[in-house]
């Protein structure tokens, strides 16, 4: 008889490509993963993995079994969610993935509130780009994903997911203090057409959105530098190397020599929580999404009171 832990080990190796990575995901040792695969091979009478350099490759028999394992594990997760819902327990483990500024500005207060109400609930935060978080959610690697998309570039969500709106996050432009535009109190999008841009790396949601927004206006943005976090982008702006867009959620104090100014038309992204439909009855999912909504509401209300900023005033999300 095929045991769930054995199937879980095989599926983890399939997803992550090595025994060590599978062990890290399952929170067991590499030796334990190897033992489970060996036991699965004995029970099926077929080889499951072959060594491939430092990694491993699944055999044809394992590929067949992985397809069934994915469905079986999904059903197990659904059954556990149904039992949790019947029991009404807010306990166990819950993992939440989120993009960087959500992890910094939204998740910590929501997690603190959640743990105060439900001390038996274990929580884990994972930082990742929205597209990766959605893939992790669909695979069952995380329970909730906090994602974002821009007003003119909606994120494509797969079937079987549910979502709750959290907030609309406004973005402002950050410029070197010596830039002539830095003396303005509000900027038009057209004012920025000839500027040198510092943005996220190609392939990221924010980089794609910036390119799409300006191209829709008939302008090709001149991207001179890319960086994978806003702190680095602001440091480059402070050095006079270009301008960047900075959302207000999770914003850190800007460095000296940088001015933050509002833009018309308003540039905003929508932030929301997403979870699997089969997990909707799980009380921990409902409690976590409620905590996220309650935390986001005062954050968004505070954003609505800030439509522009003096040219000489740093801005933080607090």
UniProtKB/TrEMBL annotation:
Alphabetical keyword list: DNA-binding, Transcription, Transcription regulation
Pfam families from the UniProt entry: HTH_1, LysR_substrate
Domain called HTH lysR-type: residue spans: 2-59
InterPro entries referenced in this protein's UniProt entry, alphabetically: LysR_HTH_N, LysR_subst-bd, WH-like_DNA-bd_sf, WH_DNA-bd_sf
Domain of life: Bacteria
Family per similarity comment: Belongs to the LysR transcriptional regulatory family.
Protein name: LysR family transcriptional regulator
Species name: Actinomadura yumaensis
Lineage of the organism: Bacteria, Bacillati, Actinomycetota, Actinomycetes, Streptosporangiales
């Amino acid at each position: 008889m095929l045991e769930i832990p054995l199937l879980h080990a095989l599926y983890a190796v399939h997803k992550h490509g090595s025994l060590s990575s599978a062990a890290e995901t399952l929170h067991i040792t590499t030796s334990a993963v190897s033992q489970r695969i060996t036991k699965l091979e004995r029970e099926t009478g077929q080889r499951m993995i072959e060594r491939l350099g430092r990694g491993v490759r699944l055999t044809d028999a394992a590929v067949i079994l992985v397809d069934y394992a994915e469905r079986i594990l999904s059903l197990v997760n659904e059954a556990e969610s149904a039992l949790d819902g019947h029991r009404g327990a807010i306990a166990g483990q819950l993992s939440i993935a989120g993009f960087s500024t959500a992890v910094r500005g939204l998740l910590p207060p929501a997690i603190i509130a959640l743990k105060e109400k439900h001390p038996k609930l274990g929580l884990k935060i994972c930082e990742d780009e929205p597209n990766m978080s959605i893939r992790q959610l669909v695979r069952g690697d995380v329970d909730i994903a906090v994602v974002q998309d821009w007003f003119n570039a909606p994120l494509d969500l797969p079937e079987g997911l549910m979502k709750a709106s959290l907030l609309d996050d406004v973005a402002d432009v950050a410029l070197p203090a010596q830039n002539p535009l830095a003396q303005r109190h509000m900027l038009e999008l057209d004012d920025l057409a000839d500027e040198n841009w510092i943005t996220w790396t190609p392939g990221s949601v924010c980089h794609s959105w910036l390119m799409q927004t300006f191209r829709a206006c008939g302008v090709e943005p001149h991207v001179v530098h890319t960086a994978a976090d806003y702190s680095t982008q602001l440091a480059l702006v402070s050095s006079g190397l270009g301008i960047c867009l900075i959302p207000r959620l999770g914003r850190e104090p800007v460095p000296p020599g940088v001015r933050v100014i509002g833009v018309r038309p308003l540039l905003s992204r929508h932030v929301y929580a997403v979870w699997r439909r089969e997990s909707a009855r799980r009380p921990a999912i409902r409690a976590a999404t409620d905590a996220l909504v309650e935390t986001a509401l005062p954050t968004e209300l505070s954003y609505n009171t800030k439509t522009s900023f003096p040219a000489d005033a740093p801005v933080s999300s607090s």
